[in-house]
Amino acid sequence: MFAWLCTDPVGTDNLQWQELPTPAPGKGEVLVRIRAASLNFPDVLIVQNKYQIKPDLPFVPGSEYAGIVEAVGEGVTHLQVGQRVAALSGTGGFATHAVVAAQLCMPLADAFSFEDAAAFIMTYATSCHALLDRGQLQPDETVLVLGAAGGVGTAAIQIAKAHGARVIAAASSDDKLALCRQIGADATINYQTQDLREALRSLTKGKGPDVVYDPVGGDYAEPAFRSIAWRGRYLVVGFAASAQIPTLPMNLPLLKGASLVGVFWGAFSQKEPAANAAMLQQLATWYVQGRIKPVLDGTLPMQELKRAYARMGQRAVRGKLVLVND
Fold it and tell me: What mean pLDDT is predicted for residues 94-99?
């Protein structure tokens, strides 16, 4: 097998494409021949030693991937050799093969392409857990999606629309907003050229959004919270644009009767596995029905991983970048 190996987490320059022994699956594990893997924001942080998870060195980055089961370990009965699966294991995906715990594998219907499957679990599970579980989004409510053209942002737009909500998408360019309208956003805000609070006031007739979905943080966190509707829910998803985690005056939730809600899908999936499995099944059903579909910025050969990292660093990615093996 070949893999991108991180021996010193100081950035992408130190990653090396190397030939390694193909591992055998242990008890409760499967060996997956990887067909596609997506690049997520945690994959950027982990090779810079900035992520909350610090894997032992050396490690293979790549948290999310899809492929075909080539071997099964002792005790694995629900997966078979030749089965199509997607997995989210935190590391191991930027390679030709990976050993992964069988319980982390999501069986794929034939209708699920490997490219879509590799770009599915993290963004759609995060957004669904955020909006429907933590945010308790109701049909006919209005949700503001910040960073709306990114991976989790595009997933949030589709899930909110599938649930019957009105979506206001906010992003940093007109091209990104055109993509958001294409996948279902009802209204858009360019927060580089428009005043966020004034635009929200106009689009909601002064009421404000019922739910704010924020994977960005940064300078727009406070104006977005100041614009939230009475009894609104502000979903803290991540800090993709923040060198520092933003702070909010604590009187704002009081004045708005609003909730500041943390979203940590990874912990939810571990602490409430049955609820997470049911959610993933619902998402898979929506995919087969054509109600949701990952937005792919493009695909690159697995050997061009550093080019993919560079594109993400330039904030040029719309949706998800996927690396593929021949």
Answer: 98
